[in-house]
Structure formats: C-alpha cells, structure tokens
Amino acid sequence: MRRSQRPSPSSGDPDPLPCAHGGPAHGLPGNLPAELNRFVGREDELADLARLLEESRLVTVVGVGGVGKTRLVSTAAALLEKRYCDGVWLVELSAVHDPELLEHALVDALGLTDHTSRPPRTTLLEHCAERRLLLVIDGFEHLVDACAELVRDLLRRAPRLRVLAAGRLPLELDGEALYPLATMTDEDALRLFAERATAVQPDFRLTERTRGAAQELCRRLDGIPLALELAAGRLRALSTDQVLERLDDRFRLLTGGSRSAPARHQTLRTAIGWSHELCAPEQRLLWSRLSVFAGQFDLEAVEYICSGSDLPAESVLDVLSGLLAQSIVLREDSAAGTRYRMLDTVREYGAEWLAATGDTERLRRRHRDWFLGLATWCELDWFSPRQGEVAARAESELPNLRRAMECSLERPEEAHLAQYLAGTLWFLWIGCGRLSEGRRWLDHVLEEETPYDSSRLKALWVLGYVAVLQGDPVAAISALTECREEADLVGDATASAYAVHRTGCLALVTDDMTRAQELLHDALGRYRELGELNSNVLMAQVELAMAVGFRGELDRAVTICEEVRDICEDHGERWALSYALFVLAFAALQRGRPARARELLGESLSISHAFHDLLGTVLSLELLALVTVVEGDAAEAALLQGAAEQIWPSVGLPLFGSAHYGAPRARCEALARHELGEERYASQRRAGGELGADAVVARALAGRPGKQREDADSGGPEAPGPQPEAGKTRKPAASPASGRGGPERW
Q1: Angstrom distance (rounded) from CA 17 to CA 23
Q2: How far is Cα 203 from Cα 17, in angstroms, rounded to an integer?
Q3: 563: burial class by Cβ within 10 Å (0-12, 13-18, 19+)?
Q4: Beta bridge partners of 92
Q5: Other CB atoms within 10 A of residue 245 CB
Q6: What does the pLDDT read at residue 270?
C-alpha cells in the first residue's frame, strides 16, 4: 500500500542519531499503514507520548476498548518517524491467538526472511541488536505474558530499540512508562463526531439546533472515539436527536463500523466484549456487580455491596486491582480520597450480565442500604472538624445517593426510606449549595402517602427550610405547619422543635422581627430540653442574632454570635461559623468599622465558597459591596453588586424580598450611583454580571484593586459613627437606644 503523507513532527523534534548502517536514510523503512481519514484532537496526548519516548524505552498506552489506543499510537509513531532511521514497525497481535506464534508475527511484521533452522527469536534479536527502530505493538492483552517476556529480551539485547505498546493491560516490566488513555475531552469529542458525521452526511453541520443534541450524545457516550464514530455512522438513516433517543440500547444501535477496522472494533459490544473475555471469572462477577453504582465509588462500598460467598470481601481488593489493570475500572483521586468509576458504556455492559444472573434487585437494595448508612454518618459528622471531608464525600456520592432514593421509591412500603434519605441530606441541599435539587427531591418523596413517622416529619421541616431560603413563603408555611401539627399529634418533640425553628426563620426573612424572636427563643428552649446541639441549633442562634441586630440591638447580636463562634471553635464547625461572621461584620460596619467588617466578611466568604454555599456567598458579597463603597471605591462596589445579582437566580428570591436584608444593597446602590453617575454605575454592574462566582470570590478575597483608604476605619460617605465592639462575654449586654444602628442608618 502506498503510504500517505503524514503530519511532520514539531520543529523542536531532535534529529535522529546515526544508524548502525550509516547515516539516516532518505526513504525511511517501516510498515505503518496509510491513514484513511483524518486524526482528530488528542494534541496533548501526542505531545505526552513524544516526551515519554524520549525518557523511556518502553511506553505502554492502556485503556478500555474503543478509547482510541490503536489510532493514537499509530499517529504518534508517524509523527516521530524521522527519529528512527531503521524504521517504525507496527505489529498487530489481536488476530494471533497462539503464544507460540508471537515471535513469528514480529518477524513477519518486520519483513524479515530467514530460511535457516534458527528460532525466530534469535532472528529478531540479531536484527534489532544495533538498529535504531520503534516497534509499535498493538492488541497484545490476550498474550500479555508471552509478549512481556519477548519485549523484555528485545530491550535487553537491543539498546537502541524503543517500544510503544497499546493494550488493555500493562506489560509490567521494569522501566515501563504507563500511559492510561482517558476518553476524549468534550471539545475533541464534538469535533470528532462532527467530522465523521460530515463524512457520511455531507450536509451535516453543527448549528444551534443540532449542537445541543450532539453535545449530549458525546457526553452519553463518554467521549469514547469508537462509540462516537459508530454513532456518526447511524446518521445515514437517523437524525442526531433520533440517535440520542435510542442510546438506551446502545449496544444494539452502535454496530456497523468500518470494514477497514479490526474485527474487535466493528461494534461497540464487540469492543467491550473483548475486554470481558480477557477477564477471569471473579473479575467478570465483580464487573457485573459494580454496575449498581452510579458515578464514583470507594473500596469500602465495593467490599460491602459486591462481596458474597462467591466473592469474599477479603478478595475484593485483588479482583478490583485486576479490573483496574485492564482499564475496566478507572481510579480517580479527589477531595474525597481515592475513588473509582466505570465509564457508562462499560457499566451498562456489566448491568446486562448482572441482569442475566437474576441478581440485580438484591444488589440494588444492598447498594441502597449502604448509602442510607453513609448519609446517616455524614449528617452526624457534619457537626465536627471533619465537616469539609463530609461535604466532599457527599458531593462525590451524590449520584449514588440519588440512585438510593430512586430505588426506595419503587416500592410503596419503602418510600419512608426515600423520605429519610432526602431529609437526612439537608446539609447537602442547604450547606453545599443544592437548594434546587433538594427541593425537587423533597417534593417528590413527600408525594408518597406514608405515616407521619420521624422520616416524613423530618422531610417536611427540611422542605420548609429549603422553601424559606428560596423565598417561597407559601410552600414553607404549608410544610412547616403540617410538620408541627402532626409532630404534636404523634409526640415527636424533635420534629416539633425544628418546625418551630424554621417558622421563626421564615418570620425573619419576611421582616416580622418580633415574631422571629419569639419563635427562635422558643425553638432554642426546646433544643435545650432535648439536649440537641448541632449546626442547626447554632444557626437558630445566628438567626436570633440577625433578628435583634436588624432591630438595632447590636451588642446583643454580637454577644450571641461570639458565643456561636466559641462553640464552633470547640467543635470544629465551619458552616454555621460563616453566618455568625456575617452578623459580626454587619455589626462592625454599623459601628463605623469597615476594615473590621471586611476582615470578617473575607473569612465568611472563604468558608461559604469552600462549601459551595451560594446563599452564604451571595449574602457576603452583598454586604461586602456596601463595605467597599463606604471605603471609597464605588466602581468596585457596583461590580460586586452586579456579580451578586447573577448568583441570586441559583438561590431563589433575591435577598428573600426582605427590606432588612435588602437595606445594604439599597444603600450601596444609592451611594455608588451618586459617586459614579448612572452610566458608569450601570457599566460596572454589567461587568460584575459577566464574572463567574469563582472569579468574583477570588477578586473579593484578594482585596479591592481600587482606591486605598487613608484611614483603615474612617467612616466614608455617610457611614455610621464608631462604637466600641462588645467583647466575648456571654452575658447579654444592655440594648442601645431604640433605633440606634438599625437598618434605617444604612
């Protein structure tokens, strides 16, 4: 076959060293096949392989079937061709099934002829001994032991030889540089799909109408190149939307690959099935059971859920390691520790095998029970120094927690477990910025008719809490009233206390400060009687401090929040602390201490953002904007207001529609408009709206880039006069005169 022109290596590619038989040849030997279509994307991976082949004599690319190993190593070898004056030689081993024929396959690939009675290994060793060549070995996994032995001998006897291997297993030789090949990036996957789609349907274009479906298709197919190319082939008969609709049966849909492709790549099922055939029986069993997980999972969960008499818990780690080695399971290190996952395509293949054994329902309920226990542990550990770890763990387990709720809702008699789970995850919905999803699940699980036990009552008060924060008072009062009435009927004092507490929170955000104080005092008394102390109890204290602070009782508000801060420090609590710091900043600014307010808000904002708590983040930004204009930087204040405005839709009703919470924004806007003028104020606000949450928080924490104040605690325009800040005494201080420091002073 005549070889096509290949892309040249980068200009920085080193010149080849002199060959054993003289200088570099003008016509380089080799047997790389011509490319029949254009290689798309993977620029970073190609650069990585070029670097690794400079550093190591053996580089092995591993990955799941269809991920693009063969095409990547072939393209990389072609780009590096001029480095190897004795050629780049491809050895395709997928069709070789007898280990005794392995050496013959290499001899044939190198084009060697030897009519003597010498063993083929001797011929190979003599040929490669002094030559500078690159041997590309593909599809060796079913011959891994024999292949590893041969490659080891070749590398020992041929010091100028380089080997680039591609397979589903590593060779596990000394000096091997392992390169796990990930699926394509979203951008590359879309480029590949579009190019292959154009090849089968010349008028195909990515338009506003087709782009969304194409992106979702790429995501659903995990960015696996083989799957994308097979899907593109279906566009001869189907639209992109139709292909997407049929992906629930992807193994039947994604067939009919190119006739020029290896047999194992003709269909997606064959590609994945090739890996399945290479697995030992216990590996196939674990693969099927791992399909009950959604998203990531950890070793402890696997040992509990997937073990049994046919797969002892103590053997799970070894079996899992085998699946990792074959790229069936992928390892991911995250904030939650070492985690594992399977690509959706691989998981669905395992799910078919699990269904065939009739064990799906048992495994799903075992999975559900594990994650019920995990949620219980996370809620208890939220009020501890491990709060950050709990947040990271819950975030990483969210797909599994969703699946556990779905499983519990499938049977009416188990619906209370879904209610328990949705209520127990209050810290995830509220503390980690998932109000919208929490509201969806709570509404959904409460649709089921169940007795008013502790699970249903908890889901009701958590729903009320979420609705309060979203600025939905009708839904909030409905859920909280139902919870309190039913809790009183069944004698559930804990649920009743929480319902009273959250009703007080509702009064707070709807500007009924008198009722808020009464209800929050009542709730705190109930908590003391129950011996309850956790983040919710601390938030009741913070909310009481907000209520009295809004009424001008700054000393009392500060005293309450200082006490909360002490308790948080004793228990390692950070989330409730961020809100206590917000109230302390509010009081500091009221007293004419903007520098102190900025310091407190910086700590509050840092904590809230770390937890992805959008409510805490946006409240801090709103107050920080007022601090900034008081310090004399109206332009930066307007920018912060614009950024906050873009965050509120992800939380709920901006500033709860509250006059008290809205007072800092109104005052900031008035001062900034006066200083900047209407046009510049609007321009700065638009600029802030274009910043993402991460960018604006980083900007706020770095300190304002505008004018520097001459006096750190000067009042600025119309700032309240300075007052001494209360110390850390836990005794309530005398209230200042009525109205002093109240919201009207903004």
Answers
A1: 8
A2: 48
A3: middle
A4: 138
A5: 12
A6: 65
